[in-house]
Specification:
elongated; mainly alpha
């Protein structure tokens, strides 16, 4: 319940804010690309990484440190992307 409530109250509004400075056509195409390609690809990619690591080392317990390292790298790049998007959003809002 906590996971879904966090998603709907925090993630979804932030995701929609990224589309505010775009024109209607770009909003539609961007949302379609994220919903049709981005979300499933992200989930499948995460599953694939986890399964490959478990297969490579033999168990989930043995794979956990490696998965934690991969997660750390992904979080780093996620923060960089979020900061970049924030800067681009502010520039776009100033131009309006």
């Amino acid at each position: 319940i906590l996971s879904k409530s966090s998603k709907y109250s925090l993630f979804d509004p932030c995701k929609e804010m990224a589309y505010i400075p775009l024109d209607q056509e770009s909003k539609t195409k961007g949302k379609a690309a994220v919903d049709v390609i981005g979300n499933p690809l992200g989930k499948s990619g995460g599953s694939l990484i986890q399964q490959v690591m478990i297969f490579a080392v033999g168990s989930l317990a043995a794979a956990t440190p490696y998965l934690a390292g991969i997660l750390g790298v992904l979080i780093y790049f996620w923060f960089k992307a979020a900061n970049s998007l924030g800067g681009q959003f502010e520039e776009a809002m100033e131009m309006e």
